[in-house]
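Quality-control log, excerpt.
Job 1 of 2 completed; input and output follow.
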Amino acid sequence: MMAELRPFTGFAFAVEIMRPGEANPLVGGAFAECDGLEMTQDVKTIRDGADQARMIRSGGAVSYANLALKRGVTSDFGLWTWFTDAIADPFLRADAEVILLAPDGGEKARFLLSRCLPVKLKAPALNATSSSVAIEELQIAYETLTLKPGKAA
């Protein structure tokens, strides 16, 4: 009898951004939103010369979306430091992992992003008449995306 497969939930996750040569992740706070784990492959269409009704479809270049992360502003300004350092050194990169967690804290899967570059850092909107949490947003360009199934998967 086959075990029932249940979809993973998307509300329990963690993000780790590691700069080269550093032992600890870039930021200590948790992110409230994560979007942009996406890759797209171009398709090349070639006509078969002998058979005009037939087309050959071949995979082409792969492109990746930007990862968008949102979190409440804290006194941890590691994202701002990383962005400033990346401006000063255009070759500076980091690796990131987005970890999908099970309700018991086990790992369902890890999305591995390589050679990450911060491309947008947005300060929170400020409004004296609002009592909402100040949210900052970071967008990261990455060069590869790999899925690593977790132990709890």
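Job 2 of 2 completed; input and output follow.
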Amino acid sequence: MLENCRNARERWGGVSELIDRWLKERQELLVHYCDLSGENDFSQTEALTEKFVRLCEVLVDYVSAGHFEIYEQLIQEAREFNDGGLELAAKVYPKIEQTTEIALNFNDRLNGQSLSEAQVRELFNELSRLGEALESRFEMEDFLIEHLHNAHAGKVASA
């Protein structure tokens, strides 16, 4: 019994740490987003380009961690606990993928180039759409964490 408890904690205890680190990345993403969305002098193209580049770096890291680390762990938990989580994930995941496309398309708009004032204005128009997609994504991710990970916390602790 002690061995089962140790195995469960080793297997799933790290998931909480992974999620915590990822949520800190989300916070960093929001800081960059809010900093940029508060700008209103579009003539400062060089400074704004740097801010857009930094936002996109954090954005791509966050989205990648979700897809290649967090969701995989949540799906694995759902599979092992076999309590309907896989069906839930199958419904939510395609909606999250739609927000991923919006995020990656936004990132692709920068394309490593210097931006003109007109391009900066266009990106600010797209920034609002990105913000809406991120808000939706965060809600869905929180839902998955709550129903696929937090729901199992008691089972892991008692194993």
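Post-run check on job 2. The helical segments are 2-37, 45-81, 85-110, 117-149, 153-158.
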